[in-house]
Amino acid sequence: MRNFLLIFGLFTLVMAGCAHNPSLSPDAPEADLEQTYAQKTPLILSQSDTASDQAINEDDDYLEDDDYEVVEVADPLYYWNKTWYHFNDKMYFWVLKPAAQGYKAVAPESVRTGVSNFFHNLTTPIRLVGSLLQGKFKRAGIELGNFLINTTWGVAGFGNLTKKHPELNPPPEDVGQAFGAWGIDHGIYLVWPVFGPSSLRDTVGLVGDYFLHPVTYVDPWYASSGIKAYDTVNETSFRIGDYEALKEAAIDPYVSIRDAYIQNRKKKVEE
């Protein structure tokens, strides 16, 4: 029994990389298509809403914008990062994608959307604190109001009653974004196994997001990991094929993912 729990724990840890990405939108089928790839595929591209939370056409908008500015980041740990990039790539194709495909085949879209809404509502503390740390008190109030409405009238958050009102859906915030708003630079680029691309600044922010995520406090630890793994599989079920399209379009997927991640984080800090 102990060996079984150990194997199960390792598996769920691999599947739970999305839990640090709380910026995923409450109505995943629509809003995920408006996010960059830097937040769309947990094992490959994730970083802090769970766990995010823009597509290729948005990246094209950057290229067509006269004010587009390429943001560079130091990558002194290139070989370390490249190793974990390949590891995450294999884990996506060998573990996460097959799990998401099987889940999608048996779970109706309405059920998956409700689950996505639930986890988005559950990660309100991350967005709330991220807003407060930046002095965005109106945005924090909206997040709190959404939480109260969706938790009560939305039946524990499975229904998102505010999604049709753009003014009630501000861009998601997290601790890493707050650091960026304070003027703290990325430092260096990092790729972590399971968690995907990050930076020194956002890795510290990720620790803050971890302690703000309610599921972190579920005991025992393998139950918490299993819940986060389920969230990851559910979110991935909405965007199977996105990562594959990015790889096919990129001359060097590693560089494309790195640049998309840094550009996306810059945009989120400025929002």
What does this structure look like?
With 271 residues, the chain is mainly alpha-helical. The protein has one domain (2-270). It is built from 13 helices and 2 strands; from the N terminus they run H-H-H-H-H-H-H-H-H-E-E-H-H-H-H. The chain has helices at 2-15, 28-31, 42-45, 56-64, 78-106, 109-122, 124-133, 137-152, 175-181, 200-212, 221-236, 242-249, 253-270; strands at residues 189-192, 196-199. A two-stranded antiparallel ribbon has the order 1-2. Strand 1 and strand 2 form a beta hairpin. Helix 9 (175-181) crosses helix 13 (253-270). The longest helix has 29 residues, at 78-106. It is globular. 46% of the residues are buried. The model is unreliable at 1-42 and 44-68 (pLDDT under 50).
Strand-helix topology:
Layout: H1 2-15, H2 28-31, H3 42-45, H4 56-64, H5 78-106, H6 109-122, H7 124-133, H8 137-152, H9 175-181, E1 189-192, E2 196-199, H10 200-212, H11 221-236, H12 242-249, H13 253-270
Antiparallel strand pairs: 1-2
Helix pairs in contact: 1-11, 5-11, 7-8, 7-9, 9-10, 9-13
Give the topology string: H per helix, E per strand: HHHHHHHHHEEHHHH
Question: Total domains, how many?
Answer: 1
Strand content: under 5%
Distance between the termini: 49 Å
Shape: globular
Estimated radius of gyration: 17 Å
Total helices: the number is 13
Q: How many E-type strands?
A: 2
TL;DR of this structure?
The chain is an all-alpha fold and 271 residues long. It has helices at residues 2-15, 28-31, 42-45, 56-64, 78-106, 109-122, 124-133, 137-152, 175-181, 200-212, 221-236, 242-249, 253-270; strands spanning 189-192, 196-199.
